[in-house]
Specification:
By secondary structure, the protein is an all-alpha fold. The protein has six helices and no strands. Helix content is about 85%, strand content about 0%. The relative contact order is 0.12.
């Protein structure tokens, strides 16, 4: 399969996962993360999102040092998205560890939620900037 086809499949999967994780995140914020199954679903979606996001970056940059690549990228917006995504990932891991120990919502989980919502807003802009690519991928 050609790289462009892999990228289209990956990107559409990321859009669906973004919507799903946004919905589950809103649900967790509204319910103060009270349902264990809802938290597990969010963790599962977050894990899938991370895997597909890593694959997306791999398709663009290969195996080389991504920190160096993102540091050199021209688009400052994409660099901000990279750092916000890393903050969401790190805070999500910490919140997940806390949740696995205490099975309760934590302040870091609240911070993770706010960072996550910022990340989704930035992702929406990132997608919008590349809307032509997505329109073409529907036709072909």
């Amino acid at each position: 399969m050609k790289k462009i086809k892999k990228l289209k499949i990956c990107d559409w999967s990321l859009i669906l996962l973004t919507l799903a994780i946004l919905i589950s995140g809103i649900y967790l914020e509204a319910t103060d993360s009270s349902g264990r199954s809802a938290v597990w679903i969010h963790i599962g979606l977050g894990t899938l999102f991370f895997i597909f996001a890593a694959y997306h970056i791999y398709l663009h940059f290969g195996k080389n040092n991504w920190f160096t690549k993102f540091h050199k990228i021209k688009s400052q917006f994409t660099r901000v998205l990279w750092w916000v995504s890393l903050a969401a990932l790190i805070s999500g891991i910490i919140a997940c560890i806390h949740w696995l120990i205490a099975f309760s919502h934590s302040p870091i989980g609240g911070v993770h939620g706010k960072i996550g919502f910022l990340m989704v807003a930035l992702l929406a802009c990132h997608i919008y900037k590349r809307i032509k690519f997505f329109k073409q991928s529907i036709v072909r």
